[in-house]
Amino acid sequence: MSDIMIDNPHGGIRESWSEEHLVQAIVLLEDAYSFRSIEHKLSPPYILRLYRLYWSKRFQRLLTFIVSCQLLLIFIQYPSSLSRTSDLRQDRTRLTLPCGIQLFTEFVCLIIFYIDAIMRTYLIGLKNARKKPWIIANFLITTISMVDLIFSCIFGCQGKTINIRFLLRPFYMAVISQEMKKIFNSLRKSFLQILSVTILLGIHVYFFSVIGMILFPPARKDSPSERPNEGTKYFPDFPDALLNLVVLLTTANNPDITLPAYSKNRLYIIYFAVFLTIGLYCLMTLFTVIKMNTFKEFFTTSMQNSLFRRRLAVRACFDILLERQVIPSSSLTTTDDTTTSLLTQRITRTTTPMLVITRVINGSDLPEPLKTELVDTLKRYAGENNEVGWDMFATAMLSLDADVQKS
Predict the structure, then answer these.
(1) Which Gene3D superfamilies does the entry link to (predicted)?
(2) What's the rounded Cα separation, in Å, for the pair 240 and 377?
(3) Is 315 in the same domain as 218?
(4) N or C end of the chain, less CB within 10 A?
């Protein structure tokens, strides 16, 4: 992309937009389209090229492919789950990669994740990276996974039975997915409210487990031919009673637990009815309501923050376009005078030529239909003057909020 030179006959000057300013405006416009924060470096020029390369579709798809490969490794790692049937009595030979290939593949993936975290830190600066918990967590989890991988190299794939890095792999899926990040942040902010309801559920199950052991004590058979009390089979001791009531509360196995006791005495249904009414229809409903309300509030706040980042990026893009190099017309005759009088300043006018804005829009990675719509809208607003002010620019950029399918 080359510089743009425009003669201004009204002011008797020549205005110039450098390639660096144009690329900065392009980057900010792409940030606005993708709801990205503008808290990143804008100079020198190679930083902008690296930034655009990192957020390009090809690079992000490559990163997604690497994360997918790491997640799919679990199917062919020891103990392998890749078999024709799940019956352990049949097909005992399972496809498993050699240990060296497994460890080397994981090592390459972790190195790429390190590079990804380092690139993000370098692009936004160390000061801003310290404020990003996802970047800090990325370094921490990748380091833990690398240490665990080293132990696997020492003890072997089958000799090391506990692999912590296997449990940490879903984290990288959350790193590349904005939706997963929103879900994790929503859970983090609603943790205390969910914890309070969970404690109430625990007390509720504990209380009714004690009552169940009193109502259904272990019965002794006086004779071998005597039929055992079916109502006591699910309440033989406290751990089993607690587990069975949790199953009764969280799954649909109601007949398995309630009917044996009901077959002994129909009045026992009162116990299970009270337990399910309080636990399932009161506490579980309260749990769902709290989670939905918290997620709704978080989603609303997230959308507001995203729109704020977009508006801020649009404003920063326009402010960049207002900055230009000015050469007075009287100094256009000699090269020395041109060099000494070359200034970078903000013009008192608050407009930008349509040619410059068109070059910025066409040079961005926005979808082609959106580019055409923005250029046509701005040309219609600019009219014969071919000058675009902030109000025109901001109104045209509302097209970014439309439901345009990303290519």
Answers:
(1) 1.10.287.70, Voltage-gated potassium channels. Chain C
(2) 69
(3) no
(4) C
